[in-house]
Amino acid sequence: KLAQNEGVTVCVVEKGGEIGSHILSGNVFDPIALNELIPDWEEKGAPLETQVTEDKFYYLTESSAIPCPVPPTLHNDGNYIISLGALSQWLPQQDGELRGGV
Length: 102
Known about the structure:
Layout: H1 2-5, E1 26-29, H2 32-37, E2 50-51, E3 57-60, E4 65-68, E5 80-83, H3 84-90, H4 95-98
Antiparallel strand pairs: 1-5, 2-5, 3-4
C-alpha cells in the first residue's frame, strides 16, 4: 500500500514454470498483513487452514525429549501453519483485490 501511494511498482521474478513452484517450505504465518490487504481472505479461500492452537518446544537428545518453556514473545496464538508455495499461488488470483500487478 505504501509503494502504491508513492507510485512505486513492485516486480517479483519467478524462476519456476508457475508462481510459487520453487517455494517448498512451510511457515508460521501471522495474518495481520493479509487482513489489511484482503479482509475477506477466509471467504475467498486463502490457503490458511491450520490455525496454531498451542506452542511446544522440546530439547531432543538421543533417547529423550525434554520439554522447555516457550517465552510469550514466541507464542503463535492466532497464527497459521501454511505452505508458502500455496499462498504464493493463491495471491496472484487476488490481483484486483490487491489493486496492483502480481
